[in-house]
Design goal:
By secondary structure, this protein is mainly alpha-helical. The chain contains six helices and no strands.
Amino acid sequence: MIKDKIIEIRQKNRLSQAEFSKILNMTQNAIGRIERGQQEVDLKMLIGLSEHFDVNLQWLITGEEQNIPNDARNAVLET
C-alpha cells in the first residue's frame, strides 16, 4: 500500500511527521491520516515524494520498481 511506502520513506530519512509534512508542504495531521490509511494520497504528494526523496513513482504506486532514467522521468513530469 502507498501509505506503507510513505512511512518507509519518512522513517528511512529519520524524519518526524512534523518534519516530513514541512518538506511536503502539508500539515502534520494530513501526514498522520495518510499513514493511518484515513486519507488518500494525491498526485501532487506522490510527485513531491519522488522528487525530494528520489524514489520511483511506479514503486510508490505499484510496489514494483522499473529502472527509468531520471532524465526520462523528469521529462514526463514536466509535460
